[in-house]
Amino acid sequence: MAELMQFLLSGLTVGAVYALVALGFTIIYNASDVVNFAQGEFVMLGGMITVFANMAGLPIPLAALIAIAVTAAAGVALNKLAIEPARGAPVVSLIIITIGASIFIRGVAQLVFDKQLHRFPAFTGDTPIQVMGATILPQALWVLFGALVVFAGLWAFFTKTLTGKAVLATSNNRLAAQLVGINVNWVMTLSFALSAAIGALAGVLVTPITNTSYDVGIALALKGFAAAMLGGMGNPVGALVGGLLLGLIEALTAGYISSVYKDAAAFVVILLVLFFMPRGIFGKSSTDRV
Amino acid sequence: MTTKRVTLLVLAILVIISPFFFPSNFYYRIGSLIFVNGLSVIGLVILIVYAGQISLGHAGFAGIGGYACALLPAHLGLHPGLAAIVGAVLSGGIAWLVGRPILRLRGHYLAIATLGFGILVSMVLANEAWLTKGPDGIEVPDLGLRDVLELVGIDLSNSQFWYWFSGLVMVLGAWVALNLYDSPTGRALRALHGSEIAARTVGIDVTRLKLQAFVISAVYASLAGSLLALQNKFITPDVAGFMHSIEMVTMAVLGGAASVLGAFFGAAILTTLPQVLTIFQEYEQILLGLVMMLVMIFMRDGLLPSILRAIRGKDK
Question: Residue A288's pLDDT is what?
Fold first, then answer.
């Protein structure tokens, strides 16, 4: 029982990170129909910038804020310099552009920072907390708490504010949104900034547990993409559930079956889910106009 | 002359003439790598351009083809050449089995499903060390064809032999793909790319056609994987990895996926580029990422069509 509890707790922690990455995917996908494979690099930037700002003598909270702001700026730059000029390009081209961007960002990070593994101290110490016979790191609670706050914040933003509603309108129908006076280019900018900031926050929260280096992005992007698809692309609730589910599946597979195949389990489950639900768990079925 | 003849002629001339400009034996090696990549990318053209489907996991099939050449001779005593053919049949069979559920998906869902498949293959290759010797890779026996050629008086260095052999296989692959394009199946595939529903309405068996294109492209990838393994005499699970799948799709699209020639061009550029970029050392990744983004943003049809247009002096 304690063992199961332990796997569940570690699965939820990893799952919360996947959920944050998946949320980032979802926001950009909704605003622009682009699947942004550079999403994982935002997480890397969040962690790495915090580490290096901290080493330069800044306190961690300030370093983290700077990291999130710089990453959000990188997201806006990605949109302005690479995504907007390619508007209307086929899906394959857009995938290649964002993968190109992720290779580029990784290259820059390797040059500006270094190739070492880094971490900074946990926010509130490293003494594990006992929960029903299992243990959880205080930092893992921070990760879970962060994911919840982000999710609640997004929910409030999209349902209670005019700006949020403008983003939703744009994702439903870009042209119609433009016709009622919504500045869709600004919505795009906002979405990329928001998505990059969420990615960076995930990086800040998880670095004390998992460490970070210039090349952690690609694996996170794949997992986040998988989580978003599992839940149903474009659905924020789907992203949250998909992320947590993916984390739990991985932790349980690693615990009970085989740790080397934990990544495999995630993809097997995705193949099975898509086989029965071709649009993910929360995806709506759609009809095509001919 | 038809496009088909022009394409085959250009490819054959490129294969035959290039060695006259090679300053050293090393260039034969680059050339044969280009042909091997060209072969797998031509297969992807059938899937992406003819049928309009996407795959982010085709390196998985290259892995199956490559490891067939290593494992079948070692465990069953098969000749490596025969092993490559068995590998291709195996890849085709697996593509048929996997393709049936996967190809019902569309767009990004198809992308993640194929991506998952590729990752599963590379994971099995890396983790089942009792069979594959794990992530460090495994040796592949010699094809033996070079010794046969030596007996009849044709004496080629190793890299020269692989240059000519891969070149031959690549041109054959292009010939098959071009014939397919003009066949009734090819026309049906293109109709499917235009509009799946319209194609279905005029009585095309969409499901079966997609599956055919998937299986054919898997066989191409598998043969390319086998060629790579045989000429390197060594193979690692990286050949089936995600980055290799991406590399293949990028080659197909970068050169100009609308044609077999464009695909070859893409393969040539992306194979040579890393060799050139090593001069820039730590800037290598930055430049590679930049090239990928810039070509896709400013030359949407890919390099070859854009360059041809510039030569003809036409606007857009």
Answer: 58
Range of the domain at B43: 28-238
Residue with token string 């247009």: B309
* Structural domain harbouring A153: 2-276
Residues of A with Cβ-Cβ distance to B54 under 8 angstroms? 91-92, 95
Question: Is A107 part of a structural domain of the chain?
Answer: yes
CB pairs under 8 A between A and B: 135
Task: Kindly list the residues of chain A whose beta carbon comes within 8 Å of any beta carbon in chain B.
Answer: 35, 82, 85-86, 89, 91-97, 99-108, 110-111, 218, 222, 225-226, 229, 233, 260-261, 263-264, 267-268, 270-271, 274-275, 278-280, 288, 290
By C-alpha distance, the chain A residue nearest B298 is A86
Q: What is the CATH number of the domain that holds A84?
A: 1.10.3470
ipTM: 0.84
Mutation site for A-interface testing, chosen from B58, B282, B296, B300 by largest number of A Cβ within 10 Å: B296
Q: What is the mean pLDDT of residues B262-269?
A: 87
In a domain, B56, yes or no: yes
Alpha helices, DSSP H only, in chain A? 2-32, 39-55, 60-78, 91-112, 138-160, 162-172, 174-179, 184-210, 217-231, 236-256, 262-276
pTM listed for this prediction: 0.86
Asked, for residue A282, whether it belongs to a domain, the answer is: no
How many structural domains are present in chain B?
Answer: 1
How distant is the Cα of B289 from the closest Cα of chain A, in angstroms?
A: 4
Asked, for residue B284, whether it belongs to a domain, the answer is no
Count other C-beta atoms under 10 Å from residue B26's C-beta.
11
Q: What is the CA radius of gyration of chain B?
A: 19
State the distance between the two ends of chain A, measured CA to CA, in whole angstroms. Answer: 55
Residue B269 belongs to a domain: no
Alpha-carbon span B305 to B255, nearest angstrom: 8
Q: Does residue A108 sit within a domain?
A: yes
In a domain, B108, yes or no: yes
Partners of residue A132 on adjacent β-strands: none
Is B293 in contact with A111 (Cβ distance < 8 A)?
A: no
pLDDT per residue as tens digits for the range B178-206 = 888 888 888 888 888 878 888 888 888 88
The DSSP code sequence of A173-195 is: -HHHHHHTT--HHHHHHHHHHHH
CA-based nearest residue in chain B for residue A80: B297
Q: Could you tell me which chain A residue has the CA closest to the CA of B98?
A: A271
Residue B306, pLDDT above cutoff 70: yes
Please state whether A277 falls in left (phi above 0), alpha (psi between -120 and 50) or beta: beta
Q: Side chain identity at A34, as an amino acid letter?
A: V
* Nearest CA distance, B75 vs chain A (angstrom): 25
Q: Among A285, A176, A251, A271, which residue's Cα sits nearest to residue A10?
A: A251
Say yes or no for a CB contact (<8 Å) between A35 and B250: no
Please, what is the Cα angle at A56 between A55 and A60, to 5 degrees?
60
What pairs with residue A263 in β-bridges?
none
The total domain count for chain A is: 1
Task: Please report whether residue A284 resides in a domain.
Answer: no
Residue B134 exposed, middle or buried by CB count within 10 Å (0-12, 13-18, 19+): middle
